[in-house]
Structures are given as C-alpha cells and as structure tokens.
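Posting here for the record, re: magnesium ion.
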Amino acid sequence: MGRVIAVANQKGGVGKTTTAINLSACLAEKGQKVLAIDMDPQGNMTSGLGIDKDEVEKNIYDLMIGQVGVEEVLQKEAIENLDIIPTSIDLSAAEIELIGVDDKESSETLLHQSKTIMSILLLIVHHR
Ligand SMILES: Nc1ncnc2c1ncn2[C@@H]1O[C@H](COP(=O)(O)OP(=O)(O)OP(=O)(O)O)[C@@H](O)[C@H]1O
Ligand SMILES: [Mg+2]
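Prediction output follows.
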C-alpha cells in the first residue's frame, strides 16, 4: 500500500520545500519507489530534484485543468527510484481560471486526476 506524505504549511520559509526534496530523495535512496508531486508554482522542488523547469513541456497545471494525462507529465526516474510530476508558474493562475469552470465539472476533473495520480502511485509502489 502506498503512503501519501503532504508537506504543507501556510507560513512561508519554514522548510517545506527543503523537507520535500530531502525526504523524497532519501526515501528513493533507501530503495522506496517515490513519486514527488510539486504543487508549488515556485517550482523549487522541481528544480531542486534536478529538473530544468525551462525544459518541462507539460506540468501539474496541465494535469489539473484536464488537458493531459498523468503519463504525459510524469518525469520517470529523474533520480533512481524517484519520479516527479513537475510544476510551473502557470499553477498560480489555476485557481483564478477554474472560477469560470462549472463547479461540478471542475471538481469531477480534479477528482478524476487525483484518483489517477493515486493509482499511478500505488502502481509504482506495487511494481517494486
Ligand atoms: N532544517 C533546516 N535547518 C536550517 N535551515 C533550513 C532547514 N530547512 C530549510 N532551511 C532553510 O530555510 C530557508 C527556507 O526553506 P524552504 O525554501 O524549504 O522553505 P519553504 O517553507 O518551502 O518556503 P516558501 O514558503 O517560500 O515556499 C532556506 O534558506 C532553507 O535552506
Ligand atoms: Mg517552498
């Protein structure tokens, strides 16, 4: 069974990104199959885990608005045992853009996408 760890805190500069980078890298180093999902538009975890943000074509924003599937945003084995779904500054616009979308449709898209992410996460863990 996969475990989901969210590193979240409303306060800025308290070490969320640093914790997420080091925790995911250490778990991968220990042989756990890890999927790191960067939900911060600043993208410091994405770049901190070695992904060049300028080279990323599709990211968590495209996934959340339902434009692409998980397979298209997944950066596989960016580090051994560690896959990443990168973020983008575009994510900061998602909340505003989604205001115009029908609530039911929007929440169904998000629900569907997060279920898909969870399935992939479980799949990765189970396939070790
Ligand atoms: N355990 C720690 N000990 C000392 N310094 C730390 C520790 N964790 C993080 N820092 C430092 O604290 C600063 C803020 O860390 P970080 O960027 O991870 O915070 P954050 O919560 O993600 O910030 P933001 O809200 O801006 O996204 C950085 O300079 C980082 O190097
Ligand atoms: Mg941060």
